[in-house]
Every structure is written in structure tokens, then in C-alpha cells.
Design brief:
Four Helix Bundle (Hemerythrin (Met), subunit A), transmembrane helix, membrane, transmembrane, Ferric oxidoreductase domain-containing protein
């Protein structure tokens, strides 16, 4: 199926969002290319993960709008949502010559939340593993994959507490608004699942 008009509109809006975020970062110059990439990779990654998560609330509409199966669209954003958050600490480690940037900090409440991006990365990997192992852990893979929400929570806290670009009002509003949308999707998906479960139970009960 070809991309529909709504699909084109949404695609342009997403590209404009990325372009706007990138422009904001570029207007606040970094001292070196590593610093610039550290900032951009964090923001690009969160955008991709946030969009991938929000799309789950529109399972039946994605093919109609984008002309492609839901999983193809979802996994495209998810792939970038894994790549850039991985490159973010890699670039920081190369810049600072300090591999400790991968190690979560637990000896201080303030430090843990300020550096919450570190445990967020590992939760992200575990959430992805839940999908890869869904045939093995059929009863639990959704719970494991649901750790993506916890990863996004830790990431947004990390961004608000230590992100250079969160001092910009536009970045602050866009990314916190995106996370608020993720929370709405979380609630909607849980309600949908509860209704679906009740229907199955009702159907099973009427058949006995």
C-alpha cells in the first residue's frame, strides 16, 4: 500500500520534530564534535523510543496510514531508539576516556537520579530481549518488554536533571510532553488489555 496523505503529514511532522530538536542543539554550540554527538544521540534516541511506544496505541491504524505493517513501522523507530541511546554513552566514554559512564551509581540518591540514564540503558536492553525471547517466555514477555516504560522514565529524569539542552524551554516542553503521551499510552494499553481479557472470559463463560 502507498503512503496515505495522513501518512505523509505525520512523516513530515516527525521529520520536522527531529529537525527542530537538531536546530536547537546546533544553536547552542558544543566545544567539540563528541559533545555535540553526545547531546544529539540522547535526544534523537528518546524521540525514537517515545514515538515507537506511542505507536502501540494505534495498532489497527498504522497499516492504513503508513501503508506498511505495524511491526515494520514500530521496529524502525525502535531500532533507532536502541542505536542512539547506545551511542550516547559510547561517545561520552570516548570523549572522557572513562568507561565508568556505563556503570549505574547507587551510593547516592541524587547521583542515581542524575545519572539515571545508565540503568535506563540496561532496562532498554532487557525490554528488547523480552521481544526476542517471546516464544520462550510467552507468559512473561509482555511484562519484560514493559520495562521500556521504566527505561523512558529514568531517561526523562536523567534528561531533566543533567541534560544540557533541557534548559531550552522548547526542548523541555517537547520531551516532557512526549513522555506524558507515553504515560497516556501506557494507561490506554492497559485498559484495552483488561477489556480484551474480560471479553475472553465472558466468551469462555457463555460457552460452558
Amino acid at each position: 500500500m502507498p503512503l496515505t496523505r495522513m501518512g505523509w503529514v505525520l512523516s513530515v511532522l516527525i521529520l520536522a520534530l527531529y529537525a527542530g530538536v537538531t536546530a536547537v542543539v546546533l544553536t547552542n554550540p558544543s566545544p567539540d564534535p563528541f559533545s555535540l554527538f553526545v547531546r544529539l544521540s540522547a535526544l534523537w534516541g528518546f524521540l525514537a523510543l517515545g514515538i515507537a511506544t506511542i505507536l502501540t496505541a494505534f495498532l489497527r491504524d498504522i497499516r492504513r496510514v503508513f501503508g506498511r505493517p505495524f511491526l515494520a513501522v514500530h521496529h524502525t523507530f525502535a531500532a533507532f531508539g536502541i542505536l542512539f541511546p547506545t551511542l550516547h554513552p559510547v561517545a561520552l566514554a570516548l570523549q572522557t576516556a572513562n568507561p565508568a559512564v556505563f556503570i549505574p551509581v547507587f551510593d547516592s540518591w541524587t547521583a542515581f537520579w542524575t545519572l539515571a540514564g545508565r540503568p535506563a540503558l540496561y532496562l532498554l536492553y532487557i525490554a528488547v530481549a523480552g521481544v526476542l525471547l517471546r516464544q520462550t517466555i510467552r507468559q512473561y514477555w509482555r511484562w519484560v518488554h514493559g520495562l521500556m516504560y521504566a527505561a523512558l522514565f529514568l531517561a526523562i529524569v536523567h534528561g531533566n536533571l543533567s541534560g544540557t539542552d533541557f534548559a531550552n524551554p522548547g526542548i523541555f516542553v517537547v520531551f516532557n510532553g512526549l513522555f506524558a503521551a507515553v504515560i497516556v499510552v501506557f494507561i490506554v494499553r492497559r485498559l484495552q488489555r483488561m477489556r480484551s481479557q474480560k471479553k475472553r472470559q465472558a466468551t469462555a463463560g457463555s460457552g460452558t
